[in-house]
Design goal:
- The protein is α/β, with parallel strands linked by helices.
- The chain is built from nine helices and seven strands, in the order E-H-E-H-E-H-E-H-E-H-E-H-H-E-H-H.
- The longest helix has 27 residues, at 100-126.
Amino acid sequence: MKPAEMRVLLTGASGGIGQAMTRRLAGAGAAVLGVGRGEAPAGRAEPTDIDRGRLEWLQADLTAADASARVAAAAAAWGANVVVHAAGVPAFGAMAHTPPSQMRSVLHTNLLAPMALTQALLPHLARQREAQVVFVGSALGRIGVPGFSVYGASKAGLHGFAEALRRELAGTPVRVKTLGPRSTRTGFNGDAVEAFNQATGTAMDSPRDVADALVRLLEGTAPERYIGFPERLAVRLNGALGAWLDSGFRKHRRHLEEDAGPTHQSKGSLA
């Protein structure tokens, strides 16, 4: 699908990655309906993109009871043919210190909300000549990294849902894809994650790198795209040799043991 043909419903559009995706998609010629909990962020795209009618904003909390139906109805009326699930909340730290309320929040926002919104949108998407649904997962959903058990579980569940749905919808106009970033330089990372990444040698990408990867995924035919090396290789190896890789996370585990603080914050990746 060419960007000029895309009318993209983008959740999490106010976040660091979401804003970069908005700018990149609009710059390539796509129309974007951004969804976020607050008002449209200032500077999310060039004024010329707004003047051309490429950008619109929908304020919604996707964890609210009526959000899926309301956002799906707005997206259908707008004519969306691409959905990018980029909304998410972080979680980082030793499992022993993770509050149950945080577990519920992470799983609700990162997994249940995109599942519910996808379900609500499927009747509309199935009527399109061509449609795509992209789930923004994480390398942490395929590689179990110490400190990211809750966040990784939410992304692993999202990957499993996307994989099954992709197979379920084979032969329909709806193509399901997964984008797997590694750690990204945004405000999603707090100080604890920044320290963890430095201590473990974790590489980080810019939001623009992730946005570029999204456009390539939408333009191409591959069902999945993981960003960065050695993460792409580690995803493959972990699927085949997971138990053999356990000893490779000693420095990650040691850092958690040294940092007895409570859990918060976000993404990292295998270094």
